[in-house]
Structures are given as structure tokens and as C-alpha cells.
Specification:
Order of helices and strands: EEHHEHEEEEHEEEEE
CATH architecture of the largest domain: Beta Barrel
Helix content: 10-25%
Number of helices: 4
CATH class of the largest domain: Mainly Beta
Number of domains: 2
Mean pLDDT: 84
Oligomer: single chain
Structural class: alpha+beta
Length: about 170
């Protein structure tokens, strides 16, 4: 089968066959096996850029004037996993005062704003951020970083640096 010159059936060199197998394995690895980002080249190629909204929850931020800190329509820098990932729009800002349950004499329970925090400078924020991201199936990838519920994110402007976590992701129709 193999002659003295290392050819299979006298026609093809065994070294050539080995080289072809190595090249095919490398191409297969690039297309199918995920890399550091968690995505294979085939998955990244099928990603579609769509507008998304990221809902961010910030708990216990101490701020003197919470209504003037952030404004809808402004742009801010976004950091995901401590890496800057570009600019994103602020769509909506809700300043929240935590509520506590209070039992009434008739046995029902009502919730009221926590009086301990109503007069202090501690506030919670629900911030809706909007921008374009790559969407592969149900996964959202913003600036080459997966964004999921619970992902720690930070927004940064000239007067603030606010850390929170993702509490919701909405993929919008084009």
C-alpha cells in the first residue's frame, strides 16, 4: 500500500494527507467550537443587530438631589464587567423610595413609603437604557459582552458613577 517514497498506492503522499486533515480540523474548530467570547464564528455570523432596552436596578444610592442626577434623553458610558463598552441612551429614570408593609387593625396590610428613608438621601433607581445590540436567538450581546439578568453593569457620566445590575432585557422590533 505504501511504497518506499511514502506514497499511498503510489500516488498520494502520506504527509500531504496529514496536512489536509490538520487544515480541515482547524477550519472545523474555527466554525463550530466557541472561543473566549462563548460564541463560535458561525454563531456570530448569524447575529442580528437590533434595538434593545436594558432595565437597570440601583439599590441604596446616596444622592442629595436624585431628580437632577439623571435625565431621560441623555447619553452615558456603560461598563459591563468593569470594561467600558461604549455609549448608551438613558430612556427612563424612576426614583424609588422603598416601601414597607404595615398591618391595619382590620387585619389587612398596606404598603407605605419607608419613613426612615423618606427624609434621608438614600434612594433606589430603576433606569431604562436603550441602544443597539447583537441578538443571537434569545441572547443579547452588547459590545462583544453577553448581557443577562443579574449582570453587574455601571453607567458613568461627568458627575456620577453608578453601579447596579440588569433586572430586565427587552428586544425591540425594528
Amino acid at each position: 500500500m505504501i511504497d518506499r517514497q511514502g506514497r499511498l498506492f503510489g500516488k498520494v503522499s502520506i504527509l500531504d494527507i496529514g496536512a489536509v486533515i490538520i487544515v480541515l480540523a482547524a477550519l472545523l474548530g474555527l466554525l463550530i467550537v466557541p472561543g473566549k467570547s462563548g460564541y463560535s464564528t458561525a454563531q456570530i455570523a448569524t447575529a442580528v443587530t437590533k434595538p434593545v432596552e436594558i432595565e437597570m436596578m440601583v439599590r441604596g444610592l446616596t444622592v442629595r438631589d436624585p431628580d437632577r442626577l439623571l435625565k431621560a434623553g441623555d447619553q452615558t458610558s456603560i461598563l459591563i464587567r468593569n470594561q467600558e463598552r461604549g455609549k448608551i441612551d438613558i430612556k427612563k429614570v424612576e426614583v424609588l423610595i422603598p416601601k414597607i408593609p404595615v398591618p391595619k387593625l382590620d387585619g389587612t396590610v398596606v404598603t407605605i413609603e419607608d419613613p426612615r428613608l423618606a427624609d434621608t438621601y438614600v434612594r433606589d433607581f430603576a433606569i431604562t437604557l436603550g441602544g443597539n445590540a447583537q441578538v443571537t436567538g434569545e441572547e443579547v450581546v452588547f459590545a462583544n459582552e453577553k448581557v443577562k439578568i443579574g449582570t453587574p453593569i455601571e453607567i458613568e457620566g461627568a458627575r456620577y458613577s453608578i453601579r447596579g445590575s440588569v433586572m430586565g432585557i427587552n428586544i425591540l422590533a425594528n
